[in-house]
Predict the structure.
Amino acid sequence: MNSFIEKEEKFIKEIIKECGYDTEEVVLNVSSRPEFGDYQYNGVMALAKTYSKNPREIATEIVDKIKVMNRYKDINIAGPGFINITFSDEQLIKHINELNENININYHNENPKTIFLDYGGANVAKALHVGHLRSANIGEALKRLANALGNKTMADAHLGDWGRPIGLVMLEIKKRNPELPYFDENFNGEYPKESPVTNEDLMILYPYASNKAKEDESYMEEAREITAKFQDGDKGLMALWEHIMYVSKNDIKRIYDRLNTTFEIWEGESDGNNYIPELTDYLKEKQLVEESQGALVINVKEENDDHEVPPLLLIKSNGSASYETTDLACIWERMKKWKPDEIWYLTDARQSLHFEQVFRAAQKAKIVKEDTKLEFIPFGTMNGSDGKPFKTRDGGVMTLEALLDLAYEECEKKVLPNITGEERKEIAEKVAIAAVKYADLIPFRLTDYNFDPIKFSDLQGKTGPYLLYSTIRMKSLLNKAEEAGIKYSKMSQIKDDSDRNVIIGILNLRSVLNKAINTKSLNDITDYLYKETNLYNNFYSQNRILIEEDKELQESWLLLTKVIYDNNVKLLDILGIEIPNRM
Ligand code: ARG
């Protein structure tokens, strides 16, 4: 199964071969000069070089051969030897009918992989903040894209559930409620079923304890002690840990749910940590572990390094494991349990050295297979509307929830006045999430951008709400046709450029999907969706579909509408955007 353009590329490659030339691949590009054709082939220059011939001569041979076959409406040569192709109406109509049968023809994959994704990383007992937004959005969309392209995917929430933040919270609980049984070493009874803290408590306890530890060294020391104690498996503290985990995880889930961000696996750093003893033994056996100032390290420097790559700190001098070790242990676990071909990590760019060390150690120690791909997928920052790091009005850290609420407030104003009550809230929420997610995926992954809820929620322009509004309108047209008893099951006619351009636009989808999965950036998809939707809206405004008298033409237009609608639904779903029934 090949996409429309891929089939044409194959065909042209065959013809070029018949003309006596050999070429690795033929690539057709969207024409930069639509007045000459829909697509163009620019490979003749390279052929001319290889065969020391005049490009125009080669182009003429190819074009003459194709012309007599009547495959295209037009094929011509421009400039020194660019070949322009204008597809025939029959070809285009046939393609739309094929898409109607199977909207997935652009998603085929001859070489599916098992891909494990790591784009959660929320820290237990701390609020999700704006920094978690992009990993959640980009990671989720990449998972859905990889999945739509026939790969097997799974994502782990990889909660930060084992470090000092939890120790800090435990210490502060102890200070406030020393009488709780979790802190009594002689307690032998059953620990309470109810958590002593709510998530709201945690949101107060953590910032309080974290600030205090910064000012008060003895408090910090106590936090270190209690952290080491729970990591060592202290019974009472483990019981308290379970409570904190439960309460906090529920809240983290709730916010990821709001963002349509899903994880198949809800593990955390603590799960990887279970494997540290066997991992350490393995590494020692491989003689990769060295002692350095009382700590255990793995040397990961390479000969041709153009920057300093320090040794990976495996076990600190106080006996505890590092962040690097946790990630290495998680790779160990993942290879053992899920055997992925690739593992994709999404965090902001500041963690690049961390992952470089971890990946090198994993490869050096053969924890992964030679052809296992470990990929770090960093992204740029989302800033406040002033271009500076995002803060609340009083200068605090903006939580992810507060940020989504800002978008909600703007989008709520855009919902139709006659929609009220619960439905209004649900719709406003969907529109808000679409606004935030779409805006987040517009810039190239590594590019920074500014949060601007007013711009993001605009019903006009390149925004999530515009796409939702347009897609809902397509659906409502189809519904009205159905209500009027108008049947449509195939396309048979193209009227003019207004409908033809919509079809030409759709031909590009496969190459857009390829680019997105290769660059691991969704910007080409957001762009494509916007352009294709604009082409459709232009067609929609130029024709009166429901009162068209030529029944065959009307049927053709309705079918085209359905294909564009299905295509939009699928692409919005890949971006993690839900479409309300109305708005
Ligand atoms: N919890 C970490 C943080 O907040 C992010 C985890 C990213 N994933 C990973 N496998 N290290 O910085």
Q: What stands out?
A: The first strand starts at residue 28 and ends at 30.
